[in-house]
Amino acid sequence: MRMYDIILKKRKGLELTKDEIEFFVQGYTNKEIPDYQASALLMAIFFNKMNKRETADLTMAMVNSGDKLDLSNIKGIKVDKHSTGGVGDKTSICLAPLVASCDVPVAKMSGRGLGHTGGTIDKLEAFKGFSVELDQQQFIDNVNNFNIALAAQTGHLAPADKKIYALRDVTATVDNMSLIASSIMSKKIASGSDAIVLDVKVGDGAFMKTPDDAKELAREMVDIGNNVGRKTIAIISDMDQPLGFAIGNALEVIEAIDLLKGNGPSDLLDLTLTLGSNMLILSGKVNTIEEGRALLMENIENGRALKKLKEFVKAQGGDESYVDDISKFPKAKYVIEVKSEKDGYVNKIHAEKLGIIAMNLGAGRATKESKIDLAVGIKLNKKRGDEVTKGDIIAYVYSNDLDKGETARKDLIENIVIEESKCEDLPLIYDIVK
Ligand code: URA
């Protein structure tokens, strides 16, 4: 078999066999296939797509490219959550400790930023000392001892996805349904949880731009999960504007902490409760969404969730005192006000563009090797539907470079659209796919 022929076949829009898909996945993982050939195949897949059978084969080839975690030593039904990626999506940081505080084991594998979207692992590294490099035994011990562990995808779990994910990030081949579905599900299957709640984002800042595409992606992932015996459901949620107010690593962690202190933005809280109550149902802890939401709210109000966050940060080597003293997080040198140039209503916040503006400030990676700046980013002061008067502050830019900060300010004025009459509201939750 030759990689050249596989690329040509997909370039012509033909269906790849299971053997051809395995040849590519194994060869690329073992460094026998170079980046340029893998990139060419990814671009051919991007344009000519894969069908459901090819996507399932790609998923399982990536699962089989490395170890599979055996979590059978952990008591209870282990639940995991994964988002397809958004702007300002810090949900996992508040959700994982919140669910764990209800005595449900959360065993979560997370990723780094991808394209214009941020990654949970990068964000959590804003806690000094926090480590996501847990070996299998530490991961299991932490879930057994604290009901929570969050690890980076190690070199051993779905290593093919790890390599392909990094390559897609820099070759404009992220937003393809089959590549996203196989990437997410290979990690989830290899990391051994019994149940998976997926947050499939839809809108301007998501990889899926329309509710129909998001639903198709959700269906594909839910079917792959259920077919291999993992209880899987997907929530389709709005990403037509950033989630919450903060975009950027430390800024987002602070917002997630605020939520657990009872002061979270309403959209972030609503999504956290929706995902969390579904996780509690899959784990068998509660029977209804209402019961789940009530238990989660109780644990925010009585401080148990915040305590769990501190326990979690400490257990993974981080300085948990940051939770009580957020001034310890990395801080940007400059905070620049972005003022509205007219009266009216905020009708559109171009989430993808804001993700790119934050990335250009240093919050995300432009190449595989780029280092991210944990302190920089954007904080919105207004959201879709808010009324503004000329001169009102609509956002703040957090920057370590004055020129970059000024460019970001101008870009934000262009991408936060203010019009005379108010636009229609969009739902936060579009659908649930089971
Ligand atoms: N998240 C992933 O883990 N993989 C993707 O391809 C997109 C989002």
UniProtKB/TrEMBL annotation:
Give the species.
Answer: Clostridium sardiniense (Clostridium absonum)
Alphabetically, the GO molecular function entries are:
pyrimidine-nucleoside phosphorylase activity
Q: What keywords appear on the UniProt entry? A: Glycosyltransferase, Transferase
The record's listing under SMART domains reads: PYNP_C (SM00941)
- SUPFAM superfamilies in the record, alphabetically? Nucleoside phosphorylase/phosphoribosyltransferase catalytic domain (SSF52418), Nucleoside phosphorylase/phosphoribosyltransferase N-terminal domain (SSF47648), Pyrimidine nucleoside phosphorylase C-terminal domain (SSF54680)
Q: Which PROSITE patterns match?
A: THYMID_PHOSPHORYLASE
Q: Which residues form the Pyrimidine nucleoside phosphorylase C-terminal domain?
A: 345-419
State the oligomer form and interacting partners. Answer: Homodimer.
Q: What is this protein called?
A: Pyrimidine-nucleoside phosphorylase
EC number(s) of the enzyme? 2.4.2.2
Is Disulfide bond set as a keyword in this record? Answer: no
UniProt-listed InterPro entries: Glycosyl_Trfase_fam3, Glycosyl_Trfase_fam3_N_dom, Glycosyl_Trfase_fam3_N_dom_sf, Nuc_phospho_transferase, PYNP-like_C_sf, PYNP_C, Pyrmidine_PPas_bac/euk, Pyrmidine_PPase_CS
Family listed: Belongs to the thymidine/pyrimidine-nucleoside phosphorylase family.
Classification via Gene3D superfamilies: Nucleoside phosphorylase/phosphoribosyltransferase catalytic domain (3.40.1030.10), Pyrimidine nucleoside phosphorylase-like, C-terminal domain (3.90.1170.30), Transferase, Pyrimidine Nucleoside Phosphorylase, Chain C (1.20.970.10)
Q: What does this protein do?
A: Catalyzes phosphorolysis of the pyrimidine nucleosides uridine, thymidine and 2'-deoxyuridine with the formation of the corresponding pyrimidine base and ribose-1-phosphate.
| Classification via Pfam families | Glycos_trans_3N (PF02885), Glycos_transf_3 (PF00591), PYNP_C (PF07831)
